[in-house]
Amino acid sequence: MNPNDHWSKSFQDWRNGKISIGSIQKQLKLFKRIGIDLDLIKSDLASLHDYLDCHLLNPRYLPISLLLEPTTWNPLEDGIQKIPLLLQHRHLLSINELLVSGTLNQILNGHLSLYGDLPPIPIGAYEAGLNKTQRQITRTNKISLLEHLATEGWDHFRRQESVATGLDRYHPTKLPAINSSVLTTKHLLLVIDGTTHQAQSLAVVGGWNDVVSCSLANMNSLPNLLRENSAEWITICHASDMLANGALHALAGQLQQTKVDTVLTCDDIIVYQLWNDGLGYEHRQYRSPVSAIRLCTRGGIGGLLTLPYDLLLKRCKFAPSYTCLEALRLDVLLQITRNPIKTTHCHQALVKHQSSQNPSIPEQGWPRERCPLSDQHLDEIGRIRSQHAKQYFGIESGLKPNPLQAGCHDLSRPTDKSSLVSILIPFRDQVELTRVCVDSIKLNAGKECTYEIVLIDNGSVEDATKEWIREAIKEDNIQCIRLDEKFNYSRLNNKARQLCRGDFLLFLNNDIKFISESVLDVLLDPFAHPKTVAVGSRLNYPDGSIQHQGVLIIPGERRCVLEPGKHLIEQEVIASLLPLRTQEEFSAASAACLMVKAERFDMVGGFDEKLAVVFNDVDLCLRLRDAGGSVVVTPHATITHYESISRGKDQVGLAWARHQRESGRLRLKHKKIYAQGDPLTSPLLHHHSTRYEPILKQVVPLRPAREEVLLTWRRPARKNDKRIPLIFAQYASNNDKPIRSDILDLLRKYRRYFYVQVVAATPSLLHHPRELTTLRSVCDGLIIRRNEGYDFGSWMTGLRFCRDLIDQRQSVLLSNDSFWGPIRPLTGMINRLANSQADVIGLTDNLMYEPHLQSAFLMFKRRAVSCPSFWQFWDNIMCWDEKRSIVKNYEVGLSVLLKENGMTLESLYSKNANGNILHAEWKSLIEDHEFPFIKVSLLRDNPHEVDIKDWKETIRRGNRRLARQIENYLEEVKRVQQDN
C-alpha cells in the first residue's frame, strides 16, 4: 500500500475508533520521510477544525496535539506563555480561548502578534526564513514552529540574536546622535498637529532654532506661517514623532553635497504599539529617494521630508485639510516633482513614528502592518493621486487602485488602437518552445491591443522548424527574418528592429508563455506616465517561483546585479515586500520580456552588440535612464519563463569567460552608477538578499595580523647595489613540500634585477635544512613566520623589515608564489616596468568590486612609498574569517586608497579586465601579450573549467624545464588527493 493510501486508511480507522491515536501521531511526525502528500493531510485534518484555515494544518507548523485533538488542546503544554499572551490579547478571558476565538488563526496568518513585543510574522514565512541553528533546535527538541516561536524563537529575538529572515530586521534600533556642525543655511522645522510646546521640544532635540506648528485640519493658515518664518529649507514631521538628537545636522550635511532645488528624505523607524503601556515592537525601514513614478504608484515616503522653502511656498497649493501627514506629503511632492527636480536620501533613521498616529506604508511588512491607513486616509490618498494624474497625464483614468496593496495605485493607459506593438522573438530551432510562445501571444495578448510578431530565425536547421515558420508567416501580422550567424542577442534584435512598424517594441524570449489575459495591455499600462520608457514584468518559473522582477545594481561586489524576489515561492514572503507588489521603478529589467518605446530605443542606439549574451538588457535600461526615462516592472501579468531553475550562472568554460568580459563592459560603461550605487535602493540592504533584507551584521576582522617571525636572515650587502627590493610572499601547507622547485628558479631570475626578500609563512622550512639552505642561496633576505593575514601579513612583515632599503631605493615590488614562471625571459616585463610613468604598476587589473590592480605582482614607486597613507595601510593589516574580505579590504582597498591620494595606476598586460583574467584569458595573455606567467590555481584547481588541454605545449615553447616542473607538481598533487 502506498503511503497516501495507508495514511487515508489509518486516519479513517482512527476516526472510527479502530486504532489508537499513537499510529496517526507517528505518521504525522514522519510524514515527509514516509512520503505522505501534505495536501492530503491538510484535507483530512480540516474535518477536525472549525477555527484554523486549511493551509495552516501542517505538522511542521503546529503541535500534533493541536492538529488531532483541537477540542482538548492545552496551549500551556505546548509552550504558549500565558501572561505575555493575555497581556497582548486582552479580549481573551483565558488562554484556553486562544483557538476558539479565532485569535490563533489570525496569529498564524500574521494578522496579530503572538506576544506584544513579537512581530506578527505568518507561520509559513517563519518556516521559510528560520536559520540553520534554530531549525536544528526544532529537530532536536522535536517541536513545531509554533512551539519554537512561542519559546526559543521569542527568547532569542528578545536577546537580539538571529532567529529567522524576516524577523531579525525587527530588532530595536536606537536613533543616532549626530554631532553639531556649523550651519550655513537657515532651516525651519514644521511640526504637524502639535502644540507650540510639542513643536519646540522636537526642535530642541533635533537641533532646530526655528520652528512652526500647524494643524492638518487648518492648512489655510500654513502659507502665512511660512511667510512669517522665511528660510532656505523646511523639514516636516509629526508632533507624535521622536527625532534623533541633532537630526538637523545629518540633513544639513546631506544637503551640502547637492544643489538648491532638491527634495531630501530619510530612513525611519515605525513603532507598532497596541496598548499604551510599553508593549510593542519597532521596524526599521530602509527607504530610497522618492521618484515621480513611485509617488504615483506607491509613495513610501516614511521619514522626515525636507524641501526647498521657496518651492513649498511658491509651487504648492494646500488643501484646506488633510486626514494624515502622508496625504500632505504626497500632495506636496506630486506638485513639486511635476517638473524635473533632484531627489536624494539620507540613509540614516532620523525619526521614530507611531504607526497609529503618523501612518505610512512600510517597505516590508507582514499582513497586520501592510496598510496602517484608515479607509478615510485611503480615500484621500486616492483622490490626491487621481487629481494629479488628471492634471499631469491629461487623462481621466491615469490611475486605478492596486489590487495587491491598499494605499497604492497602478498606472493605467487608456486603450489606443492606433498604437502597434512589435514583438521580436529570436530562436534557433526549439520549435515547440517557440510555437507555445506564439500561441500564448495569440491567446492572451489582449483583444484591444494591436500587435505584429517578428520572428528572428538564428540559423535553424530542423525541418520541423522550417515547416512551422512557413505556416506561421501566412498570418498577416507575423513575419520572419533569417540571420545565419553566431548567436548575438543584441545584434539579432537590432537587425530585426528595422522591420518593425510598432510604436512599442516587445523583446521576448522564445521560452516565454503568456498565462494571464491581456498581457500586452498590462505591459502598456505603466506607459501612462510620460517618464516611462521601458516596462518589464514579473516572470515565473514553471513551479510558480519568481524568475525575475527587476534588476538592482550592486556596486563594490563580485556580482554586478541582483534580481529581487528571484526563486521566492512563499506567497507570504512575496506579499510582504512592497516593491514586489506594485508597479515598481527599477534601474533595469530583463529583456526576456521587455517592452520599450521604439523612438527611445532608437534614440539610445539600440542594444550594445558587444554585449552578445548577458547584460545587454541592463545596459539598455541604464542608457534609457541616463537619457531621462524610467524603467517600470509590473507584478500584474502572469508569465512563465521556461528557463531551467537548475541552469548554471555561466560559471564554467567559455560561458564563464564571456560572462566575465560582458559584466566588465557593463561596469566600465556605467562607472558612475557602479561608483555611487543604485539610486533606487538602499545601500544598507544586503547585496546577496533577494528579500530586501538589511545588512544586520557587519563583517569585522578577527584581530590585527601579527608578524609571528621565527627566523630572519640577510645576505651581506653588495657594494653599489641599486636593485629595487622585491618582497616575495611564500606559503606551503603541511601537505605540500616546503618550497616548489620552480620558485627557486624564479627567485634566481628575479635576483638579477631585484633585491629579493623572501617572507615564507611556512614554519616547516625550519625542519628541512637542505631546502632552507637552497632557499637562502637564491635570495638576499629571508624571514620565516607563522601564517597570519595571508600574503598581506607576509608583505607587511617584509615591508617593515626592509623599510630602510625601501627609503633608499624609493621603490618596492611585492609578489607571491601564485604564479608559475617565467615562461619566457623577464626582460620584456622589466622593460615595461621601467618605461611606465605610473606611481603604482601591476601586471593585470580587475573591475570586480572596484577598479583595482591585482596583487600578485605590484610595484610601488617614489610617490607611493613616500605617501603616509601607504604605510598607514600596512600598519593596519588584520586577520579575517574569509579570504574574500582580504581581497575587498586589501587588494581592492589598496588601489582605491592610493588613487584617492592622487596616485596614478597602470596595468601592464590588461586594461579594464573583469574577473580573473589570469584564468579566463590565460592563453591569450601568454601568446598574444607575452605575459611571463601562468596562474598556479588555474592548472591545479581550474575552478571554472577553462580549456587548458594545451597548457603544456604553450609553456614548453618558452620554458621546457618549467613545463616539467609543473607536470611533476600536478602529478604529486593528484597522488596526494588519491591517497586522501
Percent helix among the residues? 25-40%
Taken together, the total number of domains comes to: 5
Biggest sheet details? 8 strands, mixed
The CATH superfamily of the largest domain bears the name Spore Coat Polysaccharide Biosynthesis Protein SpsA, Chain A
> What is Rg?
33 Å
Q: Into which percentage range does the β-strand content fall?
A: 15-25%
Report the uncertain regions. none
Number of strands: 38
Separate helix tally: 39
What class do helices, strands and sheet pairing give? Answer: alpha/beta
Distance between the termini: 45 Å
- Indicate the CATH architecture of the largest domain: Alpha-Beta Complex
CATH class of the largest domain, please?
Alpha Beta
CATH fold name of the largest domain: Spore Coat Polysaccharide Biosynthesis Protein SpsA, Chain A
- Principal-axis shape equals globular
> How confident is the prediction overall: mean pLDDT?
94
GO molecular function, one term: transferase activity
Protein name: Possible glycosyltransferase
Coiled coil: 952-979
Keywords: Coiled coil
